[in-house]
Amino acid sequence: MATAAAGAPYLTAAPGRTPDSWIVSGRGFEPFQELYVNQIPCGELPCGAGPMVGFRKVTADAHGDFVVEMQLLVDFEPFRGHTDRLIAAYGTNWTEDQIIDAPQVRVPLHHPGNPLAPAAGMSRPKSGRAWDPEWTTTAGVGLIFLSALGLVYGRRARRQ
After folding, report:
1. What are phi and psi of 27, to 5 degrees?
2. Pairing of strands 10-15, 34-39
3. Bigger pLDDT: 119 or 71?
4. Please, what is the end-to-end C-alpha distance for the chain in angstroms?
5. With left for phi above 0 and alpha for psi between -120 and 50, is residue 88 left, alpha or beta?
6. Which of 41, 45, 34 is nearest to 98 (CA)?
7. By the 8 A CB rule, do 108 and 84 touch?
8. How much is the average pLDDT of 81-86?
9. Measuring CA to CA, how many Å separate 147 from each of 135, 138, 144?
10. What pLDDT, in 10s, does the model give residues 106-146?
């Protein structure tokens, strides 16, 4: 994979659980941007704008990140001179001129499957987020408990 410019969107890929599936992660896109994550059959971009066979449509999160698992075409014929596959991510409304520079990652033609691969889905780092559902749930349960405790002790004090 080519090194992305500082602050530029980029892709990474790791083998998925099933043969020829890939867990593709994107970082640095516009928040909530709708994207096509696509296997590029011609081997080079732009290869025509829009979705092609084997694409996934995803929406970046509030930080411009996404994670998606893709099942790539098993009967894939590599483009002349290529011994790998090209996966790219680009906005659903990007022009062909923009798609030329879309973030991309090259992956091997085939892999047998990785049973230890993580389940795909939106992921978030454990730090650096303004809202953490696990922490919020724990804090909420604690506040509910303290409120109930306050009601019980408040009623006891009035009765005496």
Report:
1. -135, 150
2. unpaired
3. 71
4. 74
5. beta
6. 45
7. yes
8. 79
9. 18, 14, 5
10. 998 888 988 888 776 544 433 333 334 444 444 455 555 55
**Residue 81 class from Cβ within 10 Å (0-12 exposed, 13-18 middle, 19+ buried)?**
exposed
Residue by residue, what is the 3-state secondary structure of the chain?
Answer: CCCCCCCCCEEEEEECCCCCEEEEEEECCCCCCEEEEEECCCCCCCCCCCCCCCCEEEECCCCCCEEEEEECCCCCCCCCCCCEEEEEEEECCCCHHHHCCCCEEEEECCCCCCCCCCCCCCCCCCCCCCCCHHHHHHHHHHHHHHHHHHHHHHHHHHHC
Among 6-10, 30-34, 135-139, 141-145, top mean pLDDT goes to 30-34
